[in-house]
Amino acid sequence: MPKITSVEVQKRNKDRVNVYVDDQFLVGVSAYAVAKHKLQVDQEVDPAKLESVLFEDELEKAKGYITSYLMNKTQHILIEKLTKKGYEEGVVQKALEWARHYKFVDDEDYARKFAKDGSNLKKNGKRMIAQKLKQKGVEQTSIDMALSAITESDELESAAKALKSKIETYKRKTKSEREWKQKCIQFLMGRGYGFDIAKKTMEMTAYEEE
Fold this sequence. Notes:
With 210 residues, this protein is mainly α. It has helices at residues 31-36, 47-69, 75-84, 89-101, 107-120, 126-135, 140-147, 152-164, 167-173, 177-190, 195-209; strands spanning 4-9, 16-21, 24-30. The N and C termini lie far apart (89 Å).
């Protein structure tokens, strides 16, 4: 009968251990799982059954971590966080499937909400919103779908609100109309608005200020 020959604490994560059976690596699991199943050196085990039991333990723990800390995040972030916690690839993928099934992870919905808040609340343009979503690992198709809901009118409105607090400062600190208008356009483009939106917003806001 195969025996556990070693239970070693992982070097990079002291809360996890590697279990060896007959001097061959079997699985990496949490120290809690080892204690729960009272695993110890020289214990006789069925490797396949033990691996299956420990896998289910790991999966349940990963699910708990998702519901506690990773709700409504992107798939990329979920995978990254679970991997950093030390979960094996198989556990991560099963946990991701479970999270998708119950809509705890939904990149399309995440992108829609992120884009809407980015435009309405943070006063960012489409380019900046797209860049931030890419950094969060959202696929381009989901990004494009989310951005398609933001109309030119929406961008002009949010850009105007963003510029309103800056325009008087630019007028006061620059020497010419051309210079402060350039500052306005640069400011808006820096927030992710395209040149056309930035120019139209500057012209509308300048007109209102007169």
